[in-house]
Design a protein that fits this description.
Blueprint lengths: L27 H28 L5 H8 L3 H26 L9 H14 L2 H13 L8 H11 L1 H11 L10 H23 L9 H4 L2 H36 L20 H4 L2 E2 L2 E2 L7
Antiparallel strand pairs: 1-2
Helix pairs in contact: 1-2, 1-3, 3-4, 5-7, 8-10
Length: 289
């Protein structure tokens, strides 16, 4: 039997029981509301920080805002804002008509959505750990704005990731996402050094070999972060698998679904029928994206 190609998109049904748009705990409308609120909070946070920083030269002014787009923390926070906005739209369309907008996307875009989801449930933890363990100086912020902005971007980011891990019915992420997560980090590393070359500053002090004591130390930090994202991915994978096992297998909480349209061409989905398949098409746990 020929081995499966882990990079193929596949030609089976995409997410046949709508795991990306449903929850074992919340009905689709509530899941939409929570995702929309998280997205709104993240966008408001970023735009308020931009406005505040531009209005206060003592914290860097608009020049600091321009530099902020080189920080991994900021890029991942924008990612959170946009992911939850997109996820809210898909959940809304599913709640409204019983079929999410995501189902009509080409398979490559569906695969990218799955990878986007994997970044949201892994990168925030990396950001939180690196900030509080490596970068934080140990003294609490004297300015309320600084305390709020840092807690929002280096603390609540992980809370939002935990919501996406525990509340929706999503399957564990695909293992093939690991090299893509590492590739994205490598591309960001290139951005960080391009920033140093063009703007004259290191976005993170541990990337400066003069500051940390040599290029070998910088390499160790980079390798450590790459290993860290793999470890985080594995832990998240296990947590999602355990959540699915406890809620569905042990507790029988298969999910809260939207009412399906009364259309003979649509396949009726009930809680019992939705657990693993629609009709004769199985929801294969090893489905490739």
């Amino acid at each position: 039997m020929a081995p499966k190609n882990p990079f193929r998109f596949g030609d089976g049904l995409w997410d046949p029981s709508n795991r990306f748009e449903t929850s074992w705990l919340l009905n689709p409308w509530l899941l939409f509301a929570f995702r929309a609120l998280i997205s709104i909070y993240a966008f408001v946070t970023r735009f308020f920080i931009i406005g505040w920083t531009c209005a206060h030269s003592e914290v860097g002014g608009c020049e600091e805002v321009r530099h902020s787009f080189s920080y991994f923390t900021i890029l991942t926070y924008w990612g959170i804002a946009f992911y939850f906005a997109v996820a809210a739209i898909h959940t809304f369309t599913y709640a409204l008509r019983g079929r999410p907008l995501l189902d009509s996307f080409p398979r490559p875009l569906q695969a990218l959505h799955a990878l986007f989801h994997s970044t949201i449930i892994t990168y925030p933890f990396l950001v939180t750990i690196v900030y509080w363990v490596v970068l934080y100086k140990g003294e609490w912020f004297t300015v309320t704005f600084s305390a709020w902005s840092n807690v929002s971007q280096h603390g609540l980011n992980s809370l939002f990731a935990l919501f996406e891990i525990f509340i929706p019915r999503t399957n564990p992420p695909e293992w093939v996402h690991i090299p893509w997560l590492i590739l994205i980090l490598a591309l960001y590393l290139a951005v960080a050094y391009i920033t140093q070359a063009t703007e004259g500053f290191y976005v993170y002090s541990f990337l400066d070999h003069n500051d940390v004591g040599g290029r070998g130390i910088v390499a160790a930090y980079i390798i450590g972060i790459a290993v860290g994202i793999v470890v985080i991915f594995c832990i998240v994978w296990c947590i999602i698998w355990l959540r699915r096992w406890v809620t569905e297998t042990k507790l029988g909480m298969d999910g809260k679904f939207a009412k399906q349209p009364d259309n003979a061409n649509d396949i009726e989905m009930t809680a019992a029928a939705n657990k693993y398949a629609i009709g004769s098409a199985p929801e294969a746990p090893d489905r490739m994206y």
